[in-house]
Amino acid sequence: MKEILVTGAKGQLGSCLKDIHFNYPSYKFYFTDYEELDICSEESINEFLDKHNISSIVNCAAYTAVDKAETEQEKAYNLNANAPKLLSIQASKRNIHLIHISTDYVFDNSKNTPISPLDKATNPKSVYGKTKLEGEKNIQAFANSYTIIRTAWLYSEYGNNFVKTMIRLGSERENLNVVYDQIGSPTYAKDLAKAIMEAIIKSNPSTKEILHYSNEGVCSWYDFAKKIMELKNLSCKVNPILSKDYPAPAERPVYSVLDKDSTKKYLGVSVPHWEDSLKECLTFL
Q1: Which is deepest, 106, 136, 251, 252, by most CB within 10 Å?
Q2: pTM confidence score
């Protein structure tokens, strides 16, 4: 039986992997968070890997507070850049495949065309994006076998995310302003979790892949918010505004639609439309 280590197991993606892991009885899973495994500590990683016969690591852990990262740069760097390096080094010593979750924020998103996994024009504008890109580079430099999966606009029934925030605010307010000039594709974490399992099944000791995964379809944050209100039967009116009218410490991507064609072919999967996945998620909220 192959053993899988999942880091950041209390987050959205880790929680969704917990939900579906029963569908993969040929794998034994270890779901860890900081309390069980400090991935910023080489000693902690060594101790854990020495105790178990891990074949794949799924690194869901990340510093994702995009605005806070502008001032908490050391914390963001340690978790987003240095930890993947430490995991890569130890994984390579033990012939472990590393699956790492990255982000559309590694691009400057200035093209207005879907972004290919092969696109080398990474140019992150935020500390969060810069540290995530550094993590990618460390994996490519130190891991013998890896799959980097970039995603965007992640949400689920777990943790803090846009969908849950909209439901809460939509229940409290009569009006809500949401930006309409940032375009992307929402990603239901449970769909991404299924894709990760396919990547594990597909992996081998020589795998070196960069994949893009989000749900199908394109929308603005305004469109996304409108659909949430509609499906939850909330009467809150959503007003479209420009990003410049909602200033934030970190610069957000303007266009972050990810090209998934190569991912779908490589994994042999079909990807649900974002509206269908949103409906599924809302049955839990």
Answers
A1: 106
A2: 0.98
Q: Which position has the token pair 């995964």?
A: 213
User: Which residues carry out catalysis?
Assistant: 128
Contact indicator for 105, 66 with CB cutoff of 8 Å: yes
CA distance 204 to 249: 41
Q: What is the mean pLDDT of each run of 10 residues along the chain (285 residues)?
A: 97 98 98 97 98 98 98 98 98 98 90 91 94 98 98 98 98 98 97 98 97 98 98 98 95 94 97 98 98
Query: In the chain, what is the straight-line distance between the N-terminal and C-terminal CA atoms, in Å?
Result: 35
HSE-CB of 266 using CA atoms within 13 angstroms: 23
Of 175, 155, 166, residue with least CA distance to 241: 175
For 134, phi then psi, to 5°, come to -60, -40
Gap between the Cα atoms of 87 and 57, Å rounded: 8
Spatial CA neighbour of 24 closest among 265, 172, 160, 198: 198
Question: How many of the other CB atoms lie within 10 Å of CB of 57?
Answer: 28
